[in-house]
Automatic annotation (TrEMBL):
GO terms for biological process: methylation. Coiled coil: none annotated. It comes from Streptomyces gilvosporeus. GO terms for molecular function: methyltransferase activity. Residues 58-195 form the Methyltransferase FkbM domain. This is Methyltransferase FkbM. InterPro entries: FkbM_mtfrase, SAM-dependent_MTase, SAM-dependent_MTases_sf. Residues 255-279 have a biased composition (Basic and acidic residues). Residues 250-279 are annotated as: Disordered. Keywords: Methyltransferase, Transferase.
């Protein structure tokens, strides 16, 4: 068990969420580069909300944020620390509607961020949760879909196929060879005209020019480190997510004019603002 997993349950939820939001961009720098692929306005989707680091950043840019988080107490936490234009859906995103087993690590309740509908050796207990395809939400003006579900990414994409084909949003997808084969997701996105990009050294690089499986094999030990260690101690960059954009576009220039709307001021939203719980 990591240090964060041991002390996290003993701290107030709001403090844990704030710490995660502050530390997360240190080992997932793409979160600090949202302006490169997520315009202001529109709808942003966060699949796998966890402690809310992506949701809270997206709330600064998007007119509407829809976050799916199946772990009940984490969904409630996100709902309590985000502004009213964030909608938290307490369900797992996949390619069907119904109920599914969410697998949790034996030593935690979901705070480690490794819960999944796909069972692995580290999982010790299961929790029945509602599940649904993103297409069933009938979202419009979608600019970004971020997916981090530890092995179920392809099912999420399949369940969002109509939305993706209609809206052509940016797709930010966790891909780890140690968890799942990379080829199915790469083939699915390529078949729909998407091209992959990664951020290994502070510069966006076409995935076609970067050997992601070899990189992950060399640096897989970093993935075993906890949030605090990866954020505070020197470490080698471990690239485990790919940004997919429609072919012919690249990070930083794909969106053109901002998606504008009335009475929305993203600069007025800050992570340290107290938000009343919504009912």
């Amino acid at each position: 068990m990591t240090l964060a997993a041991r002390i996290g349950p003993r701290l107030p939820g709001r403090l844990v969420a704030a710490l995660a939001g502050g530390l997360y961009p240190r080992f997932e720098p793409e979160l600090g580069r949202l302006a490169d692929f997520c315009p202001t306005g529109g709808t942003a989707v966060d699949v796998g909300g966890w402690l809310g680091p992506w949701t809270r950043r997206l709330a600064r840019r998007a007119e509407r944020v829809v976050t799916l988080e199946p772990v009940p107490h984490l969904a409630r936490l996100i709902d309590s620390v985000t502004p009213p234009h964030v909608e938290v859906v307490p369900a797992a995103a996949t390619d069907r509607t119904g109920c599914a087993t969410l697998w949790l690590p034996a030593d935690g309740r979901g705070e480690r961020g490794v819960s999944s509908l796909v069972r692995r050796e580290l999982h010790g207990s299961g929790l029945d949760v509602p599940c649904l395809p993103l297409d069933s939400l009938e979202l419009d003006r979608v600019t970004l879909i971020k997916i981090d579900v530890d092995g179920g990414e392809l099912a999420v994409l399949r369940g969002a196929a109509r939305t993706i084909e209609r809206e052509l949003p940016a797709l930010f997808v966790e891909l780890e060879a140690r968890i799942q084969p990379l080829a199915p997701v790469l083939e699915w996105t390529a078949a729909r005209g998407y091209r992959g990009w990664v951020l290994p050294h502070g510069r966006w690089t076409p995935l076609a020019d970067f050997d992601l499986p070899a990189h992950q094999s060399r640096t897989s030990h970093v993935a075993e480190h906890g949030l605090l260690r990866r954020s505070l101690a020197p470490h080698r960059r471990y690239v485990n997510s790919v940004l997919f954009l429609p072919a012919g576009t690249r990070p930083g220039n794909r969106h053109g004019p901002e998606i504008r709307h009335r009475d929305f001021h993203p600069r007025g939203i800050h992570d340290d603002v107290h938000h009343e719980r919504r009912h």
